[in-house]
């Protein structure tokens, strides 16, 4: 996989280059700021851009604003954002994009090499990776979503089991219904939550985030939440890949 890194901290930048290369990826550019990022993306055509939220010259939000621009100008490119802190406004904007190939991790996660590389692979594969602290802070500030009132009791029950990390097969077993029946309920609740058709599987992510927000749930522990097109499970209350 071809990767561009945009990170001002030299040690972290060089460390990520080494990690990615050792994992068999090709780092086609490594930049200290976002000044030449657009040109580098156009020239090198990477599959993944990994960038810091706060970059020179102001060290405020240059990186994450650049990530939003890249999502608009190069929709096929996967983006993995790293940050010391949660930039709530822009994090919410990125997640609301409703497309896959996106990650938002706090930099502490980079110290767990296996977890970091798993996150890279998930995002590159079109999935979504969210740090649990990002999820917790975003959910803490969201109010009751009236769209949930549109769901039937059975659809609400299915959504609750989805939020527990259960697969469609597990939900069917828990409710003593067929897997096809579960799929129909999920399709209906997607429609009622105004989550249009997509090809990335992120409707499941958004539906569960809506449920958790209104149930006042969330966790700052465990690993980052990994979502792909057909898998969803939980670990210590936080969604993870591999159900």
Automatic annotation (TrEMBL):
Biased composition (Polar residues): 227-237
GO molecular function, one term: DNA binding
GO biological process, one term: regulation of DNA-templated transcription
Spans through the membrane: none
Source taxon at top rank: Bacteria
Modified sites of kind 4-aspartylphosphate: 52
Annotated stretches, region: Disordered: 217-243
Entry keyword set: DNA-binding, Phosphoprotein, Transcription, Transcription regulation
Residues of the Response regulatory domain: 2-122
InterPro entries linked: CheY-like_superfamily, NreC/VraR/RcsB-like_REC, Sig_transdc_resp-reg_C-effctor, Sig_transdc_resp-reg_receiver, Tscrpt_reg_LuxR_C, WalR-like
Domain HTH luxR-type: 144-209
Organism: Pseudoclavibacter endophyticus
UniProt protein name: Response regulator transcription factor
Pfam families (alphabetical): GerE, Response_reg
